[in-house]
Amino acid sequence: MKYAILIGDGMADYPIEKLGGRTILQVARTPAMDSIAERGRTGLAQTVPDGFPPGSDVANMSILGYDPATYYSGRAPLEAASMGVALEADDVAFRCNLITIEKGMIKDYSAGHISSDEAEILIDTLDSELRTENVRFYPGISYRHLIVARNDMGAETECTPPHDITGERKDDYLPRGKDGEFFSGLIEASTVVLELHPVNLKRVQEGKNPANSIWVWGQGYAPKFRSFQELYEKKGAIISAVDLLKGIGIYAGLDVIEVPGATGYLDTNYEGKASAAIESLKTRDLVFVHVEAPDEAGHEGSIEKKLKAVEDFDSRIVAPILKHAEASEEPFTILVLPDHPTPVSIKTHTRDPIPFAVYRTDKVDPDGVETFDEEAVKNGSMGLVKASDLIGMLVKG
Questions:
Q1: How far apart are CA 374 and CA 359, in angstroms?
Q2: What is the value of pTM for the model shown?
Q3: Cβ burial, residue 17 (10 Å; 0-12/13-18/19+)
Q4: Which residue ranges in the chain fall short of pLDDT 70?
């Protein structure tokens, strides 16, 4: 049996008035996902356990079969692993966003989805001017970067994800608690360095949002995982543009497959991801394919972009992998799902259970659900399940 786990980040949504009270998934043209739902089994999965924030770190860890209550230590350490940044026992890794501040307000959590080349210049500048004995900056992809603090600094600081507070006053959400003053000062110092940087002056001239500040959040220590193969007796791989997902894969002992042109946005290389997934299954039992674009569109509050992202995920990821599975001489199990909702109406994640559908090519087992969406799967035969149990249910069932 081969397994393909296809994750459309943030696809789930709430009913939208402009769409006649329907959700994005109900309106979008998704024949491949609908086919999986119609011929397989469906249900709802709780990806965010009680007591945890509804982040992609917690949700995707659950989908990969790791209970956050056992394995979660923070988001940034997972991204550090993907970036090749080794953490000592007393190192605390922070996500460091490049953001746009305007008139004291958080205008844009991604600085206009700044390019990686521009961002690297800015992060290198920050590292040269603000780096200390205890704090160092590391460049990542687009707006997503890393700070590592030594000597347990910041482990107990209270931080807020910037995508949760777009349009809010910056000063109301600066880091608080132990070491909060230090990290608030680091944010303020970054604006002095970045405001008149040539990269930002050029972006302003071009009508783009400048990356005129950093924002720190998602901190934690390096986690300790059991390998995926040890837990599930399957050799697997993961494909994603996002350091967070790659980091989870590294800690899980999965092969991380890099796809040229994978951006984590609407312009990502869908075809490259689908082809890489199909190729990877020639030598592995299982592949996770993660697409970030629907989540980014949700954070932007764009109905149009999210509809396109969901339809692209269906036609350019799910459809070719489904076609390959049905033509294969080997049996396939395909699981399709989001990690969490990212409703366009609120522009951030929620902890609501997410829809999922499972189809086995060797065992057509319909449960009467005909479409893949939040409402239809409520009638599915699998009911409400704990997401971290899904992988075990698939490989052992």
A1: 17
A2: 0.85
A3: exposed
A4: 397
